[in-house]
Write a structure and sequence with these properties.
Structural class: alpha+beta
Strand content: 5-15%
CATH topology of one domain: Rossmann fold
Helix content: 55-70%
Number of strands: 12
Radius of gyration: 60 Å
CATH superfamily of one domain: BRCT domain
Shape: rod-shaped
Number of helices: 7
Largest sheet: 6 strands, antiparallel, barrel
Distance between the termini: 175 Å
CATH class of one domain: Alpha Beta
Strand order of the largest sheet: 1-2-5-4-3-6
CATH architecture of one domain: 3-Layer(aba) Sandwich
């Protein structure tokens, strides 16, 4: 067994006292190094996370700036904001405007966005522009037609005034000639009567002279009647030559066969009256009818007519065309005599009422005041109501000869009734 000396034992104790603190210090150093390493690694991690957060924030700010700029651009373009560059558009205001736009443009009910609304609005606007252009063109055409018709009417009025003046002068000349001839005949009759009154010779001579005078007087009367008939015929011819239109067409709706004439209740016009329609152009042939019209309603300012029997569909009735009815007269009084057998659609009492409506009075006998002789069918009975062996034609009646001698206008009942429909 080994033994130690006091010296060696003391040396080991000193070494032990020296080594323990060193170990502790070493351990503490190691611990410090470990914590330093750990702290350095955590700081690096935090720095990396901070850098990542800064990058994300910068990216977010850039995205927000981009979105804000895009929103501002859209607001500037769309509007609905007091300051579109700063404040975004008001969605409620935009929606209200879109609803109002849909309410004012057709066919926009399914539209929900301005993107869909704009093309539809443009199409509607272009359609309206085209319609307005067509209407403006039509207005110009109508204005040209009105101007042309006004010029034609002025020319026709001037021609009519000139024609009336000429006919009035001819009528005055004829009246003066007739008056001169009547005065001459009256002087002749006066001389014959004076000769008759102054004859105081023998009865035979006086009777012979009387008979001769009466024969001469009868001859003079016949000549006078013949001349009066000639002058009456001339008067009627002048009247017919100067016959003026009873009115004119004021408006036409060709597609409905309806028109309006410038006659009214104050013109003694009744429903059912029929007029011939002739061209109102200057120099047009008034004997050629373009159509017929029947009065269907009479008002205080104008009358409505139904237009029918249009002769040529390529020459329709237009405003300014003239209307004629040989028996109609808006003013004044005329006289007529009935002759022959009056039967058919109207009896004599109904005819008197019908003629009274248009200012024609029925007379019992022919006179110088008679304007028309209206003839019916043949006579089958005599004045006493006894049947005749053969029917007597109207032109063999005495009243017919009187009317012809006096130059009275003779019109058949058949021709007359075509101008009146009830």
């Amino acid at each position: 067994m080994l033994t130690s000396t006091p010296t060696s034992i003391a040396s080991r104790r000193g070494a032990a006292r020296v080594g323990a603190p060193a170990i502790v210090m070493f351990v503490l150093l190691l611990v410090a190094l470990f914590y330093a390493y750990v702290a350095q690694d955590a700081e690096a991690l935090v720095r990396r996370e901070l850098d990542t957060a800064k990058a994300a924030r910068a990216e977010s700010l850039a995205s927000v700036e981009t979105i804000t700029r895009d929103l501002a651009d859209r607001s500037i373009l769309l509007g609905f904001s007091e300051n579109p560059a700063i404040n975004p558009s008001n969605v409620e205001s935009a929606a209200a405007s879109l609803a109002e736009m849909k309410a004012n443009f057709p066919n926009m009910e399914p539209v929900t966005t301005f993107e869909d609304a704009v093309p539809s609005a443009i199409a509607s606007y272009q359609t309206k522009v085209a319609q307005i252009g067509a209407l403006e063109t039509r207005i110009k055409e109508l204005e040209g037609q009105v101007s042309a018709e006004r010029d034609a009417k002025s020319a026709l009025q001037a021609e009519k005034d000139q024609r009336i003046s000429t006919l009035e002068q001819e009528a005055r000349d004829a009246s003066e000639t007739a008056a001169s001839e009547i005065s001459r005949l009256e002087d002749s009759v006066s001389k014959l009567r004076s000769q008759l009154n102054s004859t105081t010779e023998q009865v035979t001579d006086a009777e012979d002279a009387k008979r001769a005078t009466e024969r001469a007087l009868e001859t003079a009367k016949l000549e006078h009647a013949a001349q009066r008939g000639q002058w009456t015929s001339l008067r009627n011819d002048i009247k017919r030559r100067g016959e003026k239109a009873d009115g004119e067409i004021s408006a036409v709706m060709s597609e409905f066969g309806v028109g309006f004439i410038n006659l009214s209740t104050s013109d003694r016009l009744s429903e059912g009256t029929v007029f011939r329609i002739v061209s109102g152009r200057p120099g047009a042939d008034t004997s050629k009818a373009k159509a017929l019209c029947r009065v269907t309603s009479v008002g205080p300012k104008f009358a409505e007519v139904a237009i029918y029997d249009v002769a040529d569909r390529f020459e329709p009735v237009v405003v300014g065309d003239q209307i004629y009815n040989p028996l109609y007269e808006a003013k004044g009084q005329r006289n007529a005599v009935l002759a022959g057998n009056i039967s058919g659609a109207y009896n004599e009492a109904e005819l008197r009422t019908l003629f009274a409506e248009i200012g024609i009075e029925i007379q019992s006998d022919i006179s110088n005041a008679t304007d028309f002789l209206i003839t019916g069918g043949p006579i089958f009975t005599d004045e006493d109501g006894e049947p005749l062996e053969e029917p007597m034609p109207v032109d063999q009646l005495p009243v017919y000869g009187e009317a012809r001698d006096l130059g009275v206008t003779i019109v058949s009942m058949r021709d007359l009734l075509q101008y009146f429909e009830r």
